[in-house]
Amino acid sequence: MADTSYAVNDSLAVQLWAKKLEAEVLKQTYIGKFIGESADSLIHKKKELGTNAGDKVTFGLRMQLAGDGVEGDGILEGNEESLTTYSDAVYINQLRHAVRSGGKMSEQRVPFSVRNEAMSGLKDWMAGRVDTAFFNQICGVTDQTDTRYTGHNATIAPSSTRLLIAETGSTTESQIDSGDTFNLTWVDEVVTRVKLSTPLIRPIMVDGEEKYVMFLHPYQVRDMRTSTTTGQWLDIQKAALSANGSKKNPIYTGALGEYNGVVFHESTRIPVGTNSGTPITTVRRAVLCGAQAAAIGFGKGTEGVSSANWTEKSFDYGNKLGVAGGLIWGLKKTVYNSVDFGTFVVSSYAAASA
Description:
Elements: H1 11-28, E1 35-36, E2 43-46, H2 48-51, E3 56-62, E4 85-91, E5 93-100, H3 104-108, H4 114-138, E6 163-165, H5 184-195, E7 204-206, E8 209-216, H6 218-225, H7 233-241, E9 257-259, E10 262-266, E11 272-275, E12 278-289, E13 294-298, E14 309-315, E15 320-333, E16 335-336, E17 339-340, E18 343-349
Parallel strand pairs: 1-2, 2-13, 6-18, 8-10
Antiparallel strand pairs: 3-4, 5-15, 7-8, 8-12, 9-10, 11-12, 12-18, 13-15, 14-15, 16-17
Helix pairs in contact: 1-4
């Protein structure tokens, strides 16, 4: 009887493991459920680099026409309006990591496969890096300049018109104090500003209804739960119970609840505030997102053969096994004409309990 097996460095095995690695990474990420190919997705997946060469994909925005128009037999010629368009771009690059075994005797002492555990470890590492990049981008963490942690694209600070400081009259996060915790009053305020924004932060359509997604740090969620203001957390839970028909939509998966058309999600990756480059550990940047808040792209092969790579190598005359995994990708907050297109940051006091 003949067995079918794939040895270390077998070309087919490498390809299969590369495809598995990419699929598992995207499934493992926190942000995976928000990625879609539609322009109505919170994170818009750009497919151009999946089939073409290059390290950058440029995408545009056409502003709404604002002219008065011409009535009746009025002369239209000479009264035309020019289109106003802006562009943004996301760069992609390769990010790799590797694991090496201590040797065959070392592997003999443990009841697991170093190769399998390397796959699991690299999957978790890559997923964490993608999630970290997403929050560094949408929250505008300019203190992080290492692009390995920002999706291979430089971060951009929140636009002045897309930033709400939870301290009446304040314009900087350094003025936020213990009386400025997160509550639904700030949600009402930011929703009002978003609906009147220019360019408009487009909502995400869910079963024909307009929704936004807001990401909060656990400290902000705690402050909202314990708020003594009328309603607050109870209102969120009532909305969650009434949203049964929409819960099949990915943006409801793992959601805390909903209020005023905003679906709440919690993440420990929400960053702290900053004061001239110095972190403010008692401040966190919640962020409301609409459609196309960010863009993500992958290298060649994302529509067929995986863009991830998996390499196995023997060391010390075959005694040690090394495995490396990598992914060609890029992620960026969308910004047109120097204004955040789909994000609105809300900075509030959020500190660990005494």
